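Please review the protein record below. Let me know how this chain folds according to its tokens.
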Amino acid sequence: MTDWTLRDYTDTDEPSWLRCRVLGFLDTAYFDDVATHKPARAIELVAIQNGEVVGLLDAGIDGTDATIETIVVHPDHRRRGIARALLDQACTRLTARGALQVDAWTRDDDGTLAWYDAHGFTEAMRYLHVYASTPQEAAAFADRPDLMPRSGFFHAWIEHEETLRAEFQRVHVCRQFVRSLETEAS
């Protein structure tokens, strides 16, 4: 028996949704992906305990393809089956809306990678998130002498990983995971 429930997101959930998302990402490689308002998505699910959001999943749909935009559980409520319940409910809804595949993008957190693997996802693609965290690092990308960059965020092809890791302190492998929904439709 659980002491939390799943339901659709409502606008009154936004403050609690934002807190859950920030705290849930804080100890991950996505710690810097801070939202100040909740974007609208096709599928918006929350896990609620005592009137507070303790888990959330937002997904978008484009034809037969769906993307999990955010899935996170508040750190105080992890390992209680919330993420799995959110994923299962989302996959049921995505399948009902014609999606044949769902993907999710994440960075290089061992626990997160293992979670996606354990829930039927396979890695389909990867590229790099490259952060220039110092003026010296950012200057390497400056095309204009009249700009003084202080930091930067860049995408790069995975084949440049070794070279970029040697040059920059902060490089994350961003991964797309994919799960077929075709077998769930039957």
Strands lie at 5-8, 43-49, 52-62, 65-73, 101-106, 122-132, 152-157, 170-180.
